[in-house]
Amino acid sequence: MNAALKLEPAVREIWAGNAHYRVINNTIRLADLPATVGWALKEVLVASALCNNEADATEMALLNAARFGRIDEATLREVFPWLGEVPATPDQPVMATLHETAGVQVIYARGPLERLLPACIDMLDTHGRNWPLDAEDIVERTAVMVANGRHVVALARKAHAGTTLSLTDLNADLTFVGLVGIAPG
Fold first, then answer.
1. Whole-prediction pTM value?
2. Percentage helix, strand, coil, to 5, in the chain?
């Protein structure tokens, strides 16, 4: 008797810069056409790759989505060397990593919307510029993804003035980057 194939979790939806993308057949699409990876989408994919330990199926789904957007994680990790991490735990479900690029430190964080959104002060627009935060719209978009059967991961970032990272660094002044909707395996 043949064993049933087990499907791995996969990113199926991305919301970035007020645009909704779908991931179909390993291709990121906008309005059913292959998407150009613009600033906001690129930042979601960068955050997905950098804030990632490749430790479980969800993290592999995030990394695969970055690859579909032509993000090379080896090159990315050379450009953004890792300086520190706050790991996610059952009691604290947000993961954050600290990186440096061109002498500037940046934190990337991912986790549940209800934990990250209250710490956000703005969000990225389509061109990657900071824009006023529209928390109500973000919550509505998350609800639609959940209704579609997705596990939703929120992503955020912030500039950081140090070479160490702690949980308190995630409590304020984050920029909301986007949402990723993962279909279960």
1. 0.93
2. 30, 35, 35
Cβ neighbours, 10 Å, residue 141: 20
For residue 140, the one-letter residue type is E
Q: Which two tokens stand for residue 179?
A: 């949402």
C-alpha angle 155-9-6 in degrees, rounded to nearest 5? 170
Phi-psi region of 77 (alpha: psi -120 to 50; beta: other; left: phi over 0): alpha
Contact predicate 80/100, CB 8 Å: yes
Q: Which domains does the chain have, with CATH numbers?
A: 10-183 (3.40.1110.10)
pLDDT, residue 38, reads 86
Cβ burial of 155 (10 Å; 0-12, 13-18, 19+) is buried
The pLDDT score that the predictor gives to residue 1 is 42
pLDDT along the chain (185 residues), means of 10: 64 95 93 86 96 92 95 93 94 96 95 97 92 96 97 97 93 97 91
